[in-house]
């Protein structure tokens, strides 16, 4: 997760949401966008868990 940029991932998810809501977006594109969004959501969750664990470990010191 060292190269992961949470802010960029959130921005990309917002872009994906807008494209999925656009009636001009084809079904094949929506399928690819949903697949990409699943990966981004997983990465965001993993990142947030890592941050939470770091904060928790600071509280224990």
Helix and strand arrangement:
Elements: H1 6-21, H2 27-60
Helix pairs in contact: 1-2
Describe the structure.
This protein is an all-alpha fold and 61 residues long. The protein has one domain (6-52). Helices cover 82% and strands 0% of the residues. It is built from two helices and no strands. The longest helix is centred in the last third of the chain and has 34 residues, at 27-60. The two termini are 24 Å apart.
Question: Can you give keywords for this protein?
Answer:
elongated; about 60 residues; mainly alpha
| Number of helical segments with 4 or more residues | 2
Order of helices and strands: HH
How would you describe the shape? elongated
Count of folded domains? 1
Which stretches of 5+ consecutive residues score pLDDT under 50?
A: none
pLDDT averaged over residues: 94
Structural class designation: mainly alpha
Radius of gyration: 15 Å
Helix content: over 70%
Number of strand segments: 0
Q: Tell me the strand percentage band.
A: under 5%
Largest sheet properties: none
Measured between the Cα atoms of the first and last residue, the distance is 24 Å
Task: Describe the structure concisely.
This protein is mainly α and 61 residues long. It has helices at 6-21, 27-60. The longest helix is centred in the last third of the chain and has 34 residues, at 27-60.
């Amino acid at each position: 997760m060292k190269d992961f940029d949470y802010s960029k991932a959130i921005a990309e998810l917002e872009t994906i949401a807008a494209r999925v809501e656009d009636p001009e977006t084809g079904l094949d594109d929506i399928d690819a966008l949903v697949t990409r969004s699943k990966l981004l959501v997983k990465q965001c969750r993993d990142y947030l868990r890592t941050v939470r664990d770091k904060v928790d470990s600071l509280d224990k010191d």
